[in-house]
Amino acid sequence: MLQKFDKRNENLKIWVGDQLLNRNDAKVSVFDSVVQGGDAVWEGLRVYEEGVFLLDRHLNRLQESAKALCFESIPSNDHIKLCLKRTLEANNMSKDTHIRLTLTRGEKITSGMDPRLNQSGPTLIILPEWKPPVYDNEHGISVITSTIRRNNPSFLDSKIHHTNLLNNIQAKIQANFARVDAALMLDYFGFAAELNGTNIFMSKGDKVFTPFADACLHGITRGLIIELCEQNNISCAEKNISLTELYNADEVFCSGTMGELTPITAIDGRIIENNSGIEMSKNLVSLFEGVRKNFCVNL
Ligand SMILES: Cc1ncc(COP(=O)(O)O)c(C=O)c1O
Q1: Predicted TM-score of the model (pTM)
Q2: What are the residues whose beta carbons fall under 8 Å from the beta carbon of 133, sequence distance 6 or more?
């Protein structure tokens, strides 16, 4: 298993609604929409010594997800920042921290699907934990291709970063049974979409490719990598990528707040062989690390 219980997280203070609660008391109502229907949106944030990474981009995506789902009385970014600051201060956290920021549609007056039953505004949850990047970024990870397809906008638009994660969780279960670290999910047409919790990139020679953000989350880290390529004259294109192209790539890697940039060394038991010798992912990691502090915000 990639993650283990960290004793430093035993006595966390967690923000729920409008207050900080001890880990064991931090609970939502059984009438909350997240319990009733997975009806919530979320962001993963990483805190470095220099501050919270790409905070505004994450908060703006949260706002857009909540707006798309027609949440009412969505808290402003300024309000969320204030709650984040209070939570980090209460836990004495200023580095090596991952925050799971969730906004549910809130409590319902009775159980049911209808959002009109939500009459008391959303519930904000800020769960900070001591957590280094989850994957082994030095040695990389192995993945399998899942039989579970990633949603496209005809079913549930992946532009909404919602907590309804069962298709990703099913894919992760397949990866667990196959004893690998993560699952590669294809889109409806059979092209690569993303891993169950991160975006995917490949390089061939000096060119970088990533799937269109049609059936994958438009990851904030993914967006930054595309920008870094543009700024450093590295050719990077969004395109349909088949499994054949991935098996024959020089390098494959994934990106996300949870693990930063991680090499994928094998897909379906096939070792990814770098025939060009160009170490694109190493290059991108050093560009990423070089700009990281510029994108950190102190609350
Ligand atoms: C399914 C999925 N893909 C990709 C990502 C990576 O996105 P980001 O770079 O914004 O963390 C996430 C992160 O939550 C995710 O859940």
Answers
A1: 0.96
A2: 258, 259, 260, 262
Instruction: Spell out the CATH class of 141-292.
Output: alpha beta
In the chain, the amino acid numbered 47 is V
- Rounded Cα distance between 97 and 89, Å, is 12
> Can you give the residue ranges of every domain in the chain?
8-130, 141-292
CB 125 within 8 A of CB 14: yes
Q: Name the CATH code of domain 8-130 (choices 3.40.50.300, 3.30.470.10, 2.40.150.20, 3.30.413.10).
A: 3.30.470.10
Share of the chain above pLDDT 70, in %: 100
Which residue, judged by its Cα, is nearest atom 3 of ligand 1? 198
Quick: pLDDT tens for 37-92: 999 999 999 999 999 999 999 999 999 999 999 999 999 999 999 999 999 999 99
Ligand 1 site, residue 102, Cβ cutoff 6 A? no
Say which residue the tokens 């990281």 belong to. Answer: 292
